[in-house]
Design brief:
289 residues; alpha/beta; globular
Length: 289
């Protein structure tokens, strides 16, 4: 009798999983980055857009994430996307201080709800951009420093930004965002000019250099992502699972599924079965080819 009760409990848990909800500010940041990349895709080929690259440092001990990397004839654009709200100002030590406000623009007591101190985002991004260039050098792809550009994009139109930050040339404010994205698009005249003009004259990357950079960027890893029921997302490095053996180099996606119908699960439990998990493996066709 105990075994039947145990199976019934397992069946109920499997068919009625607990929802894992994402925090609002985390979801807003992720949605903002996704929307930004989709807007870039209107002007740039997918093969020249790279998201969430993890660039190793020179000692191969740490990896530093870059939100979006866009490859163009003008160079490599490393972009940090922020969908922050509230107010943003520069601290005395150069850090960025974000003041989060309540819905009516003021905190519960007529002040800000709370304060978050960030590192100087522009300075940090420049460090990561330089790490990317050094990684390319180690991979045999040598480009001048002038071909690497760092940009911090502030997406939220309701974010109030101090003039000292807003006037920074590496900061793209909301009202300049569309203009910045459109600058990636190459005109037909530009394509013709690039085809007949040597790169040494135009100062742009040659087709051979672009191909070389693209091939290096494709080898840089990204985070492993686990999407939970309810919308929460876990991001990190997948180490192993003793029940599942996969070829990491050829596997793009693992999908876990099980019976969600409570009546069917109960019936199978009464017949002596415990809940089973099905795993679908999606291969990285591009890598295999």
């Amino acid at each position: 009798m105990f075994r039947i009760s145990n199976r019934l409990v397992q069946a109920h848990e499997a068919s009625s999983p607990r929802e894992h909800l994402e925090e609002d500010h985390v979801r807003a940041g992720r949605d903002g980055e996704t929307s930004f990349v989709q807007r870039i895709r209107k002007h740039v080929s997918d093969r020249d857009i790279f998201s969430d690259l993890r660039v190793p440092d020179e000692f191969q001990t740490r990896k530093h994430e870059i939100d979006v990397v866009v490859l163009t004839a003008h160079g490599v654009y490393c972009i940090e996307v922020k969908n922050w709200s509230g107010e943003l100002e520069r601290g005395q030590d150069g850090s960025w201080i974000q003041k989060r406000l309540s819905a009516n623009g003021k905190g519960r007591n007529g002040t800000v709800d709370y304060v978050i101190q960030h590192h100087n985002v522009v300075a940090e991004l420049k460090v990561r951009t330089n790490l990317l260039r050094n990684h390319m050098l180690r991979a045999g792809c040598g480009l001048k420093q002038t071909y690497f550009h760092s940009r911090v994009v502030l997406l939220n139109p309701h974010l109030r930004v101090e003039d000292g930050i807003a006037s920074d040339l590496e900061v793209i404010m909301y009202d300049k965002c569309e203009e910045f994205i459109a600058s990636f698009q190459q005109t037909y005249l530009g394509m013709i000019t690039d085809a007949i003009s040597p790169a040494l004259i135009t100062g742009q990357l040659s087709y051979a250099q672009i191909d070389q950079v693209r091939n290096v960027l494709k080898t840089i890893g990204t985070w492993d992502v686990v999407d939970l029921y309810g919308g929460k997302r876990l991001i990190g490095d997948f180490k192993s699972c003793k029940q599942v053996t996969v070829n990491r180099k050829e596997t793009e996606l693992l999908e876990f599924s099980h019976q969600r119908n409570g009546y069917v699960s109960t019936m199978w439990a009464l017949l002596g079965y415990t809940p089973q998990v099905g795993i679908t493996c999606v291969l990285d066709i591009v890598h295999i080819l």
